[in-house]
Structures are given as structure tokens and as C-alpha cells.
Amino acid sequence: MKKIFLGVYHPSVLLTYLGLSISLYGIFFSKTLAFSLILLILAGLCDTFDGMVANSFQRNDLEKAFGVQIDSLSDLISFGVFPVQIYLQYFAKFGIFSFLLSAVYLLTVVTRLAYFNASGGEKREYFTGLAVTYASFFIPLYGLFSVYFSIDKILPGELLYALLAFFFVFNFRMKKPSLKIRIGLLLLAILFVILLMKKL
Q1: Whole-angstrom distance, CA of residue 105 vs CA of residue 97
Q2: Residue-wise pLDDT tens digits, 111-170
Q3: Helix segments in the chain, DSSP class H
Q4: Cα angle at 19 between 161 and 173, to 5 degrees?
Q5: Angle formed at CA 76 by CA 70 and CA 81, multiple of 5 degrees
Q6: What pTM was computed for the model?
Q7: Are strands 173-175 and 126-128 parallel, antiparallel or unpaired?
Q8: 170 Cα distance to chain centroid
């Protein structure tokens, strides 16, 4: 029987869709830096654990391939477009330079995701270059220091975004986080969220 809708509708991709939905809500409806950062953290947590959730299901080859592609496309929105929206709305200070930096940041995100899709994905044991998901850690960390200590007046957000863009495509090996480290990141994310909620 011919399918009515294109795509794969399987529980293994639900967490990926949730992270994407959170990011889209942040892009269109968030009105404060603290709330945007909370949403970025939540999207990052979804991406951190969606692979584990997906691997807990029995999937055919199409479902596995679809999961890889939908994850990359969601990453483009969650850790490419959403961070740029946060930067332009809350940190950008240099007009056309800020726009150019945003474009470079997005281009490195697209380049990284396209490269690993074309080359068969990330290695099992390590990342090559900084995974784009780490934007959901470093940007909220910088944002926390901004809302509590006004660090953005000393170290401009441009420096953070330039460094992220560089390391997204820089050819170095980075060990993938173990389950213990992922749990540690989860606890750290909870702390970040609590501190940011105080600034809502």
C-alpha cells in the first residue's frame, strides 16, 4: 500500500523532533536572553541523548538512515540558526561585522554537518572537530556570566562565536563523552537552568 506521507514516523526520532521544536519556539517566541539560553540547553540535552534513545529501538536500514539525516537537519536549526538568533538579538555590537560573523558561524555548522553526512558520519569513539551540540553548553555558559557578571562588556560575544566556528571545522580528535560524562553534563545543565530561571 502506498504511503500517504513521506518520511519515517518511528519513536526513535521523537526526541530529535522535541529538541527541534524547542529551538523553533526559542527562535520565534523567546523575549529574554535567559529564556533563550534555557531553551538552547534543553535542545542540547535532547540531542545529547537522542542517539541513545534511537539505539534502544530495533530499526531497519531506512529508519537508521532517516535518523541520521533528521538529526543533522535538526542540528542545523538548534545549534546553527538558534545560536545566531541569540547572538544577533543579545550580543552583536558591530553592525556589518556581526552579520558577517553570523554568516561564517552558520557556514561552519553547515560545512561540518554536510562533511560528516557525506563521509558516513562520526566515528564511534571520537568526534573530529568540536560537535555543534557543544554550542548548547558554551553559549549558555557565556550567557550566565553575562547576566550575572556582565562579562560581555569585557569579552565580546564575537570572540565566543568565532572560536566555536573555528573549532567546528578544525581537524582534531575529541573523545566522545561517556555515559558518566553525559550524566555530569545533565546535572550541570540543571544547575545552569536553575541559575537562569532566577533571571527570568
Answers
A1: 12
A2: 999 998 888 766 667 888 999 999 999 999 999 999 999 998 889 999 999 999 999 999
A3: 14-29, 33-55, 61-76, 82-86, 96-118, 135-149, 157-169, 179-197
A4: 50
A5: 140
A6: 0.93
A7: antiparallel
A8: 17
